[in-house]
């Protein structure tokens, strides 16, 4: 029997990579502790995601854009990322990244891993420095959900044929809407909200979960 076409959508910070990019930016801005505390509370669902992100981005004001090269050198792919993306493509699936992080880093990961779709926040830059503001629409939990739906529609797939993976409170809506929503090494509220969870930092182990669920349906 032919493999069913699917759409796999993953969060980036804390899921596809081991780090939170905004925390690394905060360290380079000399405001690491303040930003990391806001990040942790936002990912646990203790703070409004939009406000928490706006407040953290404001603390990056005046950083030179060259910091993205430094940050990219500091990030590491989560174990199994390359294997799971390769396997997904071999099965004929599409792979997307939807992130509350930033295109300045996500786009490099897209090229490196040959990802099909990506959506992330953009940081406003003037005269080669960050302004402390976002450019364009903020990637909220609702936007993550809408993006999952839009990419499924582009591929003529029902939501039942989608897979969503994430670790933070801002991933809950898309995890609950996907045919298979998997909380990955997630914060307690996210783990509780998702139908499935993987608590070991090896993304390749998503595949047995997906296959098991598919065989039961």
UniProtKB/TrEMBL annotation:
Belongs to the HAD-like hydrolase superfamily. SerB family. GO terms for cellular component: cytoplasm. One of its GO terms (molecular function) is L-phosphoserine phosphatase activity. It is an enzyme of class 3 (hydrolase). Pathway: Amino-acid biosynthesis; L-serine biosynthesis; L-serine from 3-phospho-D-glycerate: step 3/3. This is phosphoserine phosphatase. Its EC number is 3.1.3.3. It comes from Lactococcus termiticola. Its cofactor is Mg(2+). Keywords: Amino-acid biosynthesis, Hydrolase, Magnesium, Metal-binding, Serine biosynthesis.
């Amino acid at each position: 029997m032919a493999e069913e076409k699917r759409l796999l959508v993953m969060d980036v910070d804390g899921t596809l990579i081991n780090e939170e990019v905004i925390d690394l930016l905060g360290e380079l801005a000399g405001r690491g502790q303040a930003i990391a505390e806001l990040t942790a509370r936002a990912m646990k669902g203790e703070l409004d995601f939009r406000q928490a992100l706006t407040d953290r981005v404001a603390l990056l004001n005046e950083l030179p854009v060259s910091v993205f090269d430094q940050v990219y050198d500091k990030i590491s792919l989560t174990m199994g990322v390359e294997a799971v993306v390769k396997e997904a493509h071999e099965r004929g699936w599409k792979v997307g990244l939807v992130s509350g992080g930033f295109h300045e880093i996500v786009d490099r990961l897209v090229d490196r891993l040959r990802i099909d779709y990506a959506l992330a926040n953009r940081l406003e830059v003037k005269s080669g420095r960050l302004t402390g503001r976002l450019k364009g629409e903020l990637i909220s939990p609702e936007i993550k959900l809408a993006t999952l739906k839009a990419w499924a529609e582009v591929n003529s797939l029902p939501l039942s044929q989608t897979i969503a993976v994430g670790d933070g409170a801002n991933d809950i809506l898309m995890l609950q809407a996907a045919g298979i929503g998997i909380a990955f090494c997630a914060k307690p509220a996210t783990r509780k909200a998702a139908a499935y969870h993987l608590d070991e930092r090896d993304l390749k182990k998503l595949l047995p979960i997906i296959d098991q669920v598919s065989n039961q349906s």
